[in-house]
Each structure stands twice: as C-alpha cells, then as structure tokens.
Amino acid sequence: MLLFQGSHVLDIAAEFKTMRGGTRTPTPNSTVGQSLVLSVPLGNRLLQALLAESRSLTARLVTCLINGLLWMLFFVTLGIWRQGLQLLR
Prior knowledge:
Layout: E1 14-17, E2 36-39, H1 40-88
C-alpha cells in the first residue's frame, strides 16, 4: 500500500515529547503556524511511514528511468541495424 499517493505533505513544525496518551495540540483551537505535539511512538510511526513512502517513490523513479533508457537503447540499436541493412543492399 502506498501512503500519501498523489498528495503533498506540507512542512510541519513538530515537537516530539515523551508523554502518556495519544496526540495533543498546544491549544484547543489549533491553527496554521502552531506546532504539532506528538507522542514519541506516534512520531516514530509517522516518520517510518514517510521514510517508507520516500523509498517507494525513489524506487519507482529509478524503475521508470531504467525502463526509459532500455527503450531508448532498443530504438538506437534498431536504427543502427536498419542502417546496416541499407548499406548491404
């Protein structure tokens, strides 16, 4: 499963503190620009998910580049082969 597929994750100011319970925000009404406070286990899980997604995207990019290079090599080779056939005529 790919996380965050097709979305953009904005930069979030985050403070990782050791605390009991789940997540909490510094104020009852969180607004843009305020920091996000997470428990250490949740912060670690979030970080691991983002790293896994980054590795997945990198692997897909490399695969696409390799496939593109292989197709380009195929067509260049095909062109050279056709030129060789024309020279033999």
